[in-house]
Amino acid sequence: MAVCRMMISISVPEPIRRAIFPALGVLLLALLWQLGFILGGPFVLPAPLAVARCLARLARTGALWQPALVTTGHVLAGYALGSAAGLALGLAGGLARGLGAMLDSMSRLILGVPHIIWVVLALFWFGPVGEVVVFTAAIGIAPLVFAGALAGMRAAQPEFDELAAAFNLPRRQYFWEIRLPQVAVVLVPALATGLGLAWKIALMAEIFSGSTGIGGQIAAMRAYLDTVGTMAWVVVALGLLLLTDLLLAKLIAALPLKG
Question: What domains sit in the chain, N to C, each tagged with a CATH number?
Fold first, then answer.
């Protein structure tokens, strides 16, 4: 007996296919959150539904937007300053071996200082203002970006340089098509990691400095033992982290890097 089988081919757009597994990861975290609420109770982890209602109330009353904008500004400013400084010093250190060794030792020492120490020092230097958060985020990620840029410069393959010299490749073309893609292999992961680190450092600095941003709201909720409000602001910060991470990935993808 002949058996006929009909195969149905479903075409799934590429953007949706790429988003499936990240979405499953977020869903898994939400399920673990719900499980933590069931096992530990609302004081350990509030119910996700209660947090969602709190978020809706914050958005409806307009209390959500100003702290979110303040923290996002702090993060982006600190990230931009730290990345620019780390990139410039890393490229310079890659071009001059002695300078690179000196900057590398300094970077390791700075990286070894706990972020909370930088917060305390910044409070002495700047007072309880936004510069504390920006400075702490910048100095926290600059060594990371520096290490990525320096490693990328040191990992450059000399045969490509010899080939470019043999063909008398213009300096501009050499930079964009040979040198920069080699550096980007190490630098791009450092930049992506630095963005997440900038959010963590900025939130911590805001909590301790009494900022009006998300960290300040978390500190206020903690003072009132409001776990629902605390988790609501944590979710806001995580959502902004994912959004800025996506924008950074789009920006890097748009750069004219040719491997």
Answer: 64-254 (1.10.3720.10)
